[in-house]
Structures are given as structure tokens and as C-alpha cells.
Amino acid sequence: MAATQPPELFQAFGDSPLDWLGREQLYDFIKGRAFRHSVLCRADVPCSRTPSARALMSLRITSLVRPAAAGPAPSLDQREDFQNDRGTLALATNEPVLRAALRVLAEAWPWSLAFETLWGRTQQRLASSWGIVAPGYPYAASPDQLAEAMLDAFAHHIVELHVHEPGFTTAISEFPRASPVARRQSAAAPRVTNLRHRMVSLNAFDQLVLRHLDGRHDRRALLAAFQGGIRIVPSQGRPITDPAEVEPILARQLEESLRRLAGGALLVG
């Protein structure tokens, strides 16, 4: 938003004063933004055009990044890299509070966390990872500091903010059911929209499985639907054609696929 940019940015374009709408329009030109997301409010509803960290405390948060390296967090004074869902570097920071919060959010994915929950878990992570427990410690955070960090992360597309949790499930039922929109999309392309309104890229097997998750197929029916339509070729050797060998391999791959689809916020039942 233009409201988050330094005034010098707009002064460079002339001395004539700009109202809030003029600044937003100019900022669209500066960024080359072709599609604007705007919030429309009734005229009788009071609103603030300046982002508020205090208001963020009433929202839910999800992370769009995850630690680039597996394992425990680097030491307190080291930089930590976070990557987006495409596997490219999105953020590098040595700020302990931000690092702890993003790790907590990554572990909760695809679920969002209420700010109060995030604050509590971030405190626990700071204590367990680096022994930061005392309020007077230089790296200890307050809720206000965490809210400011999350607001800045939102402005840089590191986290998303939500009013409520979408209606998906990570539990895999006996008769799994996927989002009807994603099922329809998977029939035409390997990229589908999940219940978090994010694009998810599927491998060929997940794409096949997703198309069959209409809530009327249990594991046995799903395996029967795949029989004869999939060639299993080991890394070395000839294709496996014996049904007695194919079925347990397919069953294992099916369970792995269902877990991936559930973790991608694509299941509704």
C-alpha cells in the first residue's frame, strides 16, 4: 500500500499534494501493478486507510514461506533463509522473533493460527530454541512487536491474514472427498486451487487421485479404478504387471497421495 511507503517516494514526482487515492494510483504505476485488490466499505462504516498492527491482533495468520533447511533452527545470531512454495528464496533474516513465528506458522500449515495462539507458541519457541524467556532480554518480544513484524511480513507477501478458517480438513476419511472446484480443475491441468485460495501443483498420480475423490470411493474402490491404467516401472528393471505385486505398491502410493492432498488443503471430507 502507498500508506506504508516513505513520503520521499511521492515527493520525487512533484510538489503538488496528493490525496490518498492519488498516492495509491501513483504507487500502482511505480510498481507496475495491473490488478488492484481493494476493500469496499459502506459510507457509514468508519475505516482506517493506515494499516494497524493492533487490528491485526484480531485476525488469523498463515505463512507463505517455510524454512529452507530442514532440522533445528540455526543459532541465535545466524541468518535463516525461508523459501516460498516454488522453492525460491523469499526471505533471509536473523531476527529471532520473526524466525520463531514463521517456523510456528510453517508447522501449523495448512491451518491458520489466531494471533493470540501464535504469540503463545512463538514465546515457547524462543524459550526452547534459544533460551529467550525474560521480558527484559534484548531479543524478547511483546505482542505489539510481534504484531508489527507480522504486519510488515504481510506487506511483503510473507504471510496472509484471514478473518476465519476455510472449510477444509486434514483428516482423511474412509470415503475421501475433495473440493469440487479442484476436482474439476484437475481434469484439465495439474495446477488447482485449494481451500486457502492458493494454487497447488500436482504430480501426475495426485492429479489422477484427486479426480476420483467425490466421496463415493473408499480405498478399495480407488485402487480398482486405477488398476490397468497405471504402469509401475522400478528405477531399474521392467514394468511390474503382476496384480499381486502392483496392488500393494499402488496402495502405498495412494496413502502418500492422500496425505499430500490433505496437507495441501484440498479435502473437504
Q: Could you explain the architecture of this structure?
A:
There is one protein chain. The chain is α+β, with helices and mostly antiparallel strands. 39% of the residues lie in helices and 10% in strands. The protein is built from ten helices and eight strands. A three-stranded antiparallel β-sheet has the order 5-1-6. β7 and β8 form a beta hairpin. α4 crosses α5 (115-130), α7 (180-186) crosses α8 and α8 (204-211) crosses α10 (243-263). The longest helix is centred in the C-terminal third of the chain and has 21 residues, at 243-263. The protein is globular, with a radius of gyration of 23 Å. The chain starts with 7 loop residues before the first helix and ends in a 6-residue tail after the last helix.
Counting DSSP E segments of at least 2 residues, the number of strands comes to 8
- What is the topology, as strand order, of the major beta sheet? 5-1-6
Low-confidence segments, ≥5 residues, pLDDT <50? none
User: Please, what is the average pLDDT?
Assistant: 85
Biggest beta sheet attributes: 3 strands, antiparallel
Decide which structural class fits the backbone: alpha+beta
Helix count equals: 10
Number of domains: 3
Shape label: globular
Q: What is the strand content?
A: 5-15%
